[in-house]
Write a structure and sequence with these properties.
Elements (H helix, E strand, L loop, with lengths): L4 H9 L5 E4 L6 H8 L8 E7 L3 E7 L3 E3 L1 H8 L4 E3 L2 H7 L19 E4 L7 E5 L5 E6 H8 L2 E3 L2 E3 L8
Parallel strand pairs: 3-6, 6-9
Antiparallel strand pairs: 1-8, 2-3, 2-5, 4-10, 7-8
Length: about 160
């Protein structure tokens, strides 16, 4: 399957090569990291957040992190944020397998927020529409293409949720 058509066209229009790597079918970001032997600190996990009546936004985290909704609220100025439902996500990303959307919110009409820890990586790996391939781009190229807002949006597994 490769990159989904929307992302492939976007990259082709900008003459940006993007390598893909097949792997066994897996469904979580941590399983993707294991299946591909990619360091979790370089893998993008996409979390979609909604605000009632104000649309959706995308937050990009490494697999070991949970989203800190409080930090996202502070960064966006949006007060009533919640995780998007599976039904909403399916409608927002009709050209992707459920849960395998690429970290390119700009292609889906939503702003992108990325945890600052991903900025420190040389490359970013991500699912690009399916559960059996991962794509790779230099992080600076990703940043140029998407222009995400960077911040501290990560709650590590050992931290208590302070999203209130």
């Amino acid at each position: 399957m490769g990159l989904n058509a929307r992302l492939r066209q976007f990259l082709d229009d900008r003459n940006v090569p993007c390598a893909t790597m097949p792997h066994r079918e897996v469904f979580t970001a941590r399983e993707v990291a294991t299946a591909t032997h990619v360091a979790e600190r370089e893998l993008a996990k996409v979390v979609v957040v909604r605000e009632a009546g104000a649309g959706h936004l995308m937050v990009i985290l490494p697999p070991a992190c949970r989203i800190d909704l409080g930090a996202v609220r502070r960064a966006t100025g949006r007060r009533h944020l919640a995780l998007a439902t599976e039904t909403e996500i399916g409608g927002l990303f009709p050209d992707c397998e459920m849960g395998a959307m690429p970290p390119f919110g700009n292609l889906y009409g939503m702003p992108v927020y990325v945890d600052a820890c991903l900025q420190r990586t040389g490359e970013i790996f991500f699912q690009a529409g399916n559960h059996h391939e991962v794509a790779r781009l230099p992080y600076r190229e990703y940043e140029r293409l998407v222009t995400p807002v960077a911040g501290e949006f990560c709650l590590h597994e050992r931290e208590k949720d302070v999203s209130g």
